[in-house]
Amino acid sequence: MYVDSNNFDTFKYYLTNTSNVAEILSCRRILYVMVASCFILNALLKTVINSAIVAMINKKNQTDANLFDWTESEKQNILGIFFWGFALTKIPSGRLAEVIGSRRVSGYSMMLASLLTLLTPILAYWNYYALLTSRVLMGFLLGASWPAIMPLAAKWVPPEEQSMFMTTLASSAIGISLASHISGILIPKFGWQSVFYITGSMSLFWSLIWFYLIYDSPQQHPRISHKEKQLLENTTRKNVNAHLKKKFGEIPWKEILTSKPVYAIVFAQISNFVATMIILTQLPSYLDQVFQYNMKEIGLFSGLPTWGKLQSWDSAKSKDNIVQQETEMLACKSNNIF
């Protein structure tokens, strides 16, 4: 195997240079990793039942006491009722994060959702309506963590890195795919209950790490370096000040509600979400009922479509590079003027 010595030396220098290592381990880089993993686990908890439910229900002429005799209507209620809670917490949770902090809203919502995931097998055996109630609560909690992350960007993300930070939302595609793949591996070996125990435990452990590593602002972080703190204060002060000074009555609601581009974005997002959710919730059952695939095959094929969403990371990186170049050009022009 041939290794380019120039590339190897560059890589070695990057790792051994103290400033580069400090940059990799900076608080805002850790924030990016934790936010990306938040969306991965959020999607994992949200969609793992889509594949698991195939293995939870008795097939025709099957009488396994450990499985359920739910009708198709009851099955669809379990899959669909989640989204009522998911939709209702979008606006309130964003505002709540502005008031009490993203750290607490996102951290506690993920922690409670993890506990409900761990309890899913127990609730399913106990009572059908208890399971439905837990799914609604799961929707409330997992829906809350998405908008609650956004206030962090104003205080932690420099302008030239904002596009890349926002594409951490695309990491949810990893969680969606992993939910299917993990189900295809675990269920045939350990039973359908195993996917809820493992994914719930992973997310619960993540919640504890989140509270240790993440803070709402650089000023609150006890372990941030002085250099990084000063950098973030200088680059994000304008965003933070604008965010704090903007009152509810000062928001141009009329212009927003009469803007054609706003409605174009809204309808595009709704269409994308509906199409994606139909595929996520129904594809495992479709592969089971129409093609009679086994659980391993269902886990493999139902997780493949969402991997394509990761291409958005490349476009975001390109946009950040353009913003950084324009910022540098403006700085050069300012220096020439003075």
* End-to-end separation: 54 Å
What do we call the CATH topology? Answer: Growth Hormone, Chain: A
If you average the pLDDT, what whole number results?
83
What is the CATH C-level name? Mainly Alpha
Q: Would you tell me the structural class of the helices and strands?
A: mainly alpha
As a percent range, the share of strand residues is under 5%
Tell me the CATH architecture. Up-down Bundle
Radius of gyration: 23 Å
Overall number of domains: 1
Low-confidence stretches: none
What would you give as the CATH superfamily?
Answer: MFS general substrate transporter like domains
Shape summary:
globular
Number of strands: 0
The helix tally amounts to 16
| Share of residues in helices | over 70%
- What is the chain-wise order of helices and strands? HHHHHHHHHHHHHHHH
| Biggest sheet overview | none
Question: What descriptive keywords fit this protein?
Answer:
338 residues; mainly alpha; Growth Hormone, Chain: A; 78% helix; globular
What can you tell me about this protein's structure?
- This protein has 338 residues and is an all-alpha fold.
- It has a single domain (26-234, 253-337), classed as MFS general substrate transporter like domains (Growth Hormone, Chain: A).
- It has helices at residues 5-16, 18-24, 27-56, 72-80, 82-88, 90-100, 102-126, 128-156, 162-166, 172-190, 193-213, 226-245, 253-257, 260-289, 295-302, 312-337.
- Helix 5 runs parallel beside helix 8.
- It is globular, with a radius of gyration of 23 Å.
- The model has no long low-confidence stretch (mean pLDDT 83).
